[in-house]
Predict the structure of Wzz/FepE/Etk N-terminal domain-containing protein.
Amino acid sequence: MEETISLKELFGTLKKRMLMIIIVTLIAISASAIISYYVITPMYQASTQLLVNQEQSDQPNLNVSDIQANLQLISTYNDIIKSPVILDKVSEQLGGTYTTSQLKGIITVQAERDSQVVNLSVQDPDPYVAADIANKTVAVFQEEIVELMNGVDNVSVLAPAVISSDQSPVSPQPLLNIAIALVVGLMVGVGIAFLLEYLDNTIKTEQDVEKVLDLPILGVVGQITNLPDKNLTGSRTMKVRSERYGG
C-alpha cells in the first residue's frame, strides 16, 4: 500500500514545527551577522589600469594585425605580472612585509574581452597598503618588461590606484551573507521538520491506526472530561447511606 502525502499534511507539519523552523533560521541569521561583522577581517580593494600598446614606431596608425598582436601579448603579460621575477622585487620594495606567495594571492590581473586594457587589483585589510602594492607592482612591471621582451616598451598606465576617504570594503558583504543565511536557515529548518515527522512513528489519531494496521475503524472512544472528584463522590455516598440507616 503506497503512502501519499497531501498538501494539508505538509502544511500541518510545517505549522506544527513552525517554532523550530523559526529558531533554526534565527540561529543561522545571528551566526552569519556575528561572523560578518566581528570575525571576518574587512578587505579593501585598490585597482589600476594598464594599456598594452603597439611598440613605438614611425607609423602614425595601427592596423588590425598590430592590435591582434597586442591582444595576444596580454595573456603573456598577465602571467609575467604575477611571476616571481616581478613579485620578488615588489616584496623587496615593501620591506619584506609580504612574501612573493602572499603577493600572488592578493593580486588579481584581468583583461577585458577584446580589449587592450589590463586591470590589476589588490585586496588588503588596509586600503592604502593595497593601493601602494598595486602601484609598486605596475612600476616594477614597466621597468622589467622592457628587458624581458627584448626592448619592447608597449605598456603605459591609464589610471594609478587611488583611495578615497569614504572607501568601503569589498568583503565581507554582511547584508548578502545575512540574506543567504536566511534562505539556508529556512531550508535547513524545513528539512529538519520533515525529517522529524518522518521518524516519528507514534500513533496519535485514528487515521494513524488505520494506516498502521491496514484495517477499517469500527468505532472511536471519545475522551471523557469533567469527571467528578473522587473524594467528593465518596463523601456524598457516605452521607446518603447514613441518612438511609438513620445514622
